[in-house]
Amino acid sequence: xxxxxxxxxxxxxxxxxxxxxxxxxxxxxxxxxxxxxxxxxxxxxxxxxxxxxxxxxxxxxxxxxxxxxxxxxxxxxxxxxxxxxxxxxxxxxxxxxxxxxxxxxxxxxxxxxxxxxxxxxxxxxxxxxxxx
Length: 132
Fold this sequence. Notes:
Elements: H1 2-11, H2 17-21, H3 24-28, E1 32-33, H4 37-48, H5 64-87, E2 89-90, H6 91-104, H7 110-126
Antiparallel strand pairs: 1-2
């Protein structure tokens, strides 16, 4: 019983909600992804949308300057994904790009950081890729 308690207690710091939701095999899986007409169309549609505008609980960017700056980051990410997909890439590479993008939003206000996270999650979900 003590051994089981120790195992669980000392493993807790390594368990995150993101990791608990997915089986270990799925988390470590890195699959190849290539461009397709469907993926290109999804990226094109996402690229054309105006971003960081008022949406549900998000009040919209505080100024047009902030909105444009944040939108440009997301659009550049979409462009990078399109190039990577055209060359043939893996889910791990795309997740890494998404993680770097999230880091770029560290200096923004909380609302913009959270909204950027929503955009990133939506993009990855539409591409059939899991969490970062």
